[in-house]
Amino acid sequence: MKPALDPAARLTRTPVVLGLCLAALALSACETLNKTPKVELVTPTSMRPPVADVQPQANGSIFQAVSYRPLFEDHRARLVGDTITVQIVEKIAATQSSKSSIDRKGEISAGITALPFLSPNSFNRASAAGTSDNKFNGSGSTQNSNDFSGTITATVIEVLPNGHLIIAGEKQIGVNASVDVLRFSGQVDPRAIVPGNSVPSASIANVRVEHRGRGAQAEAQRIGWLSRFFLNLMPI
Fold this sequence. Notes:
Blueprint: H1 7-33, E1 83-111, E2 127-159, E3 165-175, E4 178-188, E5 198-200, E6 204-215, H2 216-220, H3 225-233
Helix pairs in contact: 1-3
């Protein structure tokens, strides 16, 4: 049998357990309150080409079935595992404005001059008048602009039945304690690929672009979990 703890030991142990529980709760709250918005990228961002069956090579022949490509064809991505250069040129600008005005004015007056069996002097103050004036002016405007440019080489990860290519790519650059991550995915029509095996992002469907940083620099730009907690609780 385990020896029972005396009341003094229990009192000493209770604050420790309570402190551990509060620390675990704080860590979970930090993860919940400091969520990073996610971009729905196509995964995986890289793909190896399928292994081709080894064909017996005919010595002295120029044509090889394993690695055949037309002699006068521009080298363009068309198979799983091929690479393609994407020129990211995304520029979006939107402006919206509205204005409304309402003006309403009314006036009414009434009076009594005479009644049977009463003298006219009795109605010197028997009059009523009223006015109303309502005005409303409202205006609003919204403006949004987004400009993103860059270059990334992506990999063909799937070829659709209609010949379109699903591409995805990732680039990571680490400098000291910070890492810069650029990820891209989309659907490419082979007819949009220009000479040089490149395609502008404006010609790619279902574009997903993610540019984030990891490390000390990204952490310095985040709001602390305690500040975020109180900001979420504030009614205004």
